Amino acid sequence: MRETYVIIVAGGTGNRMGAALPKQFLPLKGIPVMMHAIRAFHRSEHAPRIVVVIHPAMKAHWAMLCETYDFRVPHITADSGKSRFESVKNGLAVIKLLETDLSRCLIAVHDAARPLITAELIDKTYEQAALTGAAALAVQSINSVRIKSSNGLKNNAYRREHVYLMQTPQTFNGQLLSEAYGQPESETYTDDASVVEKKGYPITLVDGDTRNIKITFPEDLRIAEILFGQRI
């Protein structure tokens, strides 16, 4: 089995939550949101080495939370950047200090605010990335879709079976991901898959789960509580 890593991006400020703390630090089912995500990777079959990217001003708070909740999952912390792109680059920099041959490892990138990710889905992305080099969770749209023109004056129906909504983790061959993040940052990058695709590598989609929601708004925490309760 190849060496595996995960970069868990937890540097966001969570302004849309309207809370005093960023969303990844808010409680969910008795522990902070991001602890659920970290545990899922730790419990997966691939059990990757974990790099958590946190805003420097929140590092002491995170250390306090780990102590308060007796959170002992091994992980390394790295400083977040001014953007998600910079934060992932900082996480990659840590992995480069640990791994001499990136081409022989697999690196997942996951949003700390997706606490309902399962070990099974995590393993699927590693397995697919081992075959094709780039794998990302996605769910097919169940809603009707319309595409608006650039000037907003016109919109057209688009077949929803061709539309997929991206999730994380998104998992890549380490060398491929490193090459992709060697590119200049661009506002066209919406996720890691778009960064890798810009370098010319195709992305393999792996069926995700509609329950793998991202905590963005206050109601998302309430939805996540309900979804946790439905787990078998």
Low-confidence stretches: none
Contiguous helical run count = 7
How many domains? 1
CATH topology: Spore Coat Polysaccharide Biosynthesis Protein SpsA, Chain A
Order of helices and strands: EEEHEHEHEHEEEEHHEH
Distance between the termini: 29 Å
Q: What is the highest CATH level, the class? A: Alpha Beta
Percentage of residues in DSSP E strands: 25-35%
Radius of gyration: 18 Å
- What about the largest sheet? 7 strands, mixed
| Cα shape | globular
Q: Name the CATH architecture.
A: Alpha-Beta Complex
Round the mean pLDDT to the nearest integer and report it.
93
Q: How does the helix and strand content classify structurally?
A: alpha/beta
CATH superfamily: Spore Coat Polysaccharide Biosynthesis Protein SpsA, Chain A
Extended strand count: 11
Helix fraction by DSSP (H/I, runs of at least 4)? 25-40%
Spatially, the strands of the biggest sheet line up as 5-4-1-6-10-7-11
